[in-house]
Amino acid sequence: MTTSDVLILCAAGMLVSAYLMVGQNALFTTIRLYGLQALLLGIGSAVIAVSAARYELFVTAAVTVALKAVLIPWFLMRVIDRIGIHREIEPFLNVPASLLVCLGLTVVGYRVSTGFAESSQGVSHHLVGVALSMLLIGLFLMVTRKRAITQILALLTVENAVFLVAVGVTSGMPLVVELGIAFDVILAVLMLGILVRRIVDRFESMDISRLSKLKG
Amino acid sequence: MNLLVWTLGVPLVTAAIGALGGPRKFHEAALIGGLALTFGLCMATADQFLGGHVPAAFADALRVDGLSALVLVLCGFVGLLSATYGTGYLRRNEARQLVTPRMRLEFHFLIPAFVFAMLLVAVSNNLGILWIAVELTTLASVFLITFHDRDTSLEAGWKFLMLGSLGLGFALLGTVLLFAAGQRHLGEGMTALNWTRFMQVAPELHPFTLRLGVVFALIGYGTKAGLAPMHTWKPDAYREAPSPAGVLMAVGMLNGALYCILRIHLISKASLGPEFSGDLLLKLGLLSVLIAVPFILIQWNLKRLLAYSSIEHVGIMAVGIGIGGEAGVLGALLHMTYHSLAKPVAFFSAGTLAQLHSSSDFKRMQGGTFNRAPVASALFVIAALMITGSPPFGLFFSEMTILRAGFLGSHATATSIFLAALVVLFCGFAFQVGRLVLGPPRHQADRRVPVPERFDLGMGAAILAAILAIVSAFYLPGPLVALIRAATQVVWGGA
Which chain B residues have a beta carbon less than 8 Å from that of A203? Predict the structure, then answer.
């Protein structure tokens, strides 16, 4: 297997995990799927680090795996455990219809990715196509789901997609910037976690559609 | 050591001191003193720039040009005002047992941290650092929004953090795409993301990737600025945040986000010509002004009213940039300056009124506040005149400059719609203010204000802000004018 095969496999795995997140109601499984997605992103970065001889990408890969595949899922699972809510409630759109919509979003993502300069090279084309599809799927998840945790995961999926673009078309941003971004993301997830706990304490529910007092 | 590093270091140290425990008097002195020193350093940095020296640090990752210097000074100014008013605000709330010692620590940590993030935005030359700094302003403001820990503030905080993070996700994608558009020419390492590098290689950038990047980045930073249709977090957040934090968001965060938008616009302009991002900004700006109209007319809450006014003003600035030309840009930057001077008065007086009535809902405040709190009401009327762009105040001149640029340029239709919206907005605002300040109280029994008005630090800060804003209509200090000119030079001359 060549490195480009591995990369495409990773990207495909990320896309599949995004689809599975759409079809999943158990929150623990959704979090694990997100962890898997981040792990694949880390592997992808490591593969590029080897193939393009850009060794600072190893740091990126290590940070990605440590933070997004281990720390964030662990933290979110702990939040769920504390509040004792384990399942998504009926989303605004049912699962088969959601999956069909996501299929359409993937087509759109691939269509847009053909405009890039790098799309002549097969691998980049796939990476960008997958990344844009994931971005759209993340947005879709955010709009249709009601649980606070699922919304956080949707946000993180969007963020993974952005990093996949970064890996796919630029072979990595400058390291300092990348570390700064990782730090900010962690901080944001921590704060979201704290807010979720406060919301559950107050409303005795994680149903975001109940947060609708403020209008006009 | 480098002046720029000091300017950023002082608010950071102030935040650290604020997070530590200590006697109240010491805390207050540290907060106000720290931010006063910060403002002084901001002015010193701007002065250094005007003296012909370009302050920079860390391999040009931080660099001050005309635009940075202007935003830096305005943010430093607002930071100091907010800290002064905030101290008075906390004292008042403490007297009513609404603030616990832990909340006080939170406040003394978050306000300077927010100021630090704003200043970092203003001096970032590296697009990556810029993104990180904007994210920091978001994170610093979340717990300020949920400060009072009401049901509604949790809702506002959640919406703000989700929408803000999503917007920043878009901005990050935009940054990545901009980087991708020019990677071959930008070189390696930290300097590759420098805005100045982008401007050097602008003609070589790959057009498709650049367009996509510019759209994502403008939408992302537009969310932070509160441009419609990404403005929905703003009314909620402004209503829930305590007024000293609200003013940091309404002026500091807005200026910072606009600064990011301008940087992206300039890259796009240098590479694709002014139409692409200019037209997008014009449309978003016009939409923001139009969307504010119905909501100001039917508004039921004082602070939400200010939020829609802020959406209107960011729309006006975007319209000015979108119309372009030296006049349009000058108008937008003048508007930014005058807005930064006028908005604190509005927030401080409205905050005082809301605090006296223990609510910012019109229903609970009732009409006729002038009889109960004459000073705060008078200040609010002055502020309302200023932010609706009445002559002789500054925002009138900046709006006129933008309108003139619009009618003389090729955007007559858009400018006409813009003018009509401004007129309706003025009437709507005047109606709301009249109802609140002069209207009869609904029940005769409510003639008395729950808490009587007293002259204290918060009131002093509000009066000082009002005096400065009024004076600025007739006289702008020479160095400030020089900064506005330098900033216009950056945006228009593309230097």
Answer: 151
